[in-house]
Design goal:
- The protein has 5 helices and no strands.
- By secondary structure, it is mostly helical.
- The chain is rod-shaped.
- The chain starts with a helix and ends with a helix.
């Protein structure tokens, strides 16, 4: 009589090729970005991405003014640093949201694989 561990190990070894093919079909960063626009926070993503581009434009303009300003370079320096911090915060939130959406998708895939393996084990028992 084989233990449950041996049966699970055998079932996982049989499905390794299917799982490897599934993992190889990942598209990478473009898929992660598109998944973040399909999740529950998609409205926020549609707001944050253009806002990040606008902040980046103002940041570049502010840095330019910092280097070309006469006596008001301190003002433009503070503006540049503040805009850089805003851009960092917006980009970090976007990347965290992409990671959350991608992780949720991977958890769903694992749930499906586990359900399939459970059904096979029940069928073989």
């Amino acid at each position: 009589m084989t233990s449950i561990d041996d049966r699970i190990k055998t079932a996982l070894e049989q499905d390794t090729k299917e799982i490897d093919a599934l993992l190889a079909s990942e598209g990478g960063l473009p898929d992660m970005i598109s998944a973040s626009f399909k999740g529950g926070l998609r409205r926020w993503m549609f707001l944050v991405w253009p806002l990040t581009l606008i902040v980046t434009g103002f940041m570049v303009w502010s840095i330019y003014n910092f280097f070309t300003a006469g006596e008001s370079y301190i003002y433009w320096g503070f503006c540049s640093v503040g805009l850089m911090m805003m851009q960092i915060a917006l980009k970090q939130w976007s990347w965290m949201e992409m990671n959350r959406a991608f992780t949720a998708r991977e958890i769903k895939r694992l749930e499906l694989v586990i359900a399939g393996l459970s059904a096979k084990l029940d069928k073989n028992s």
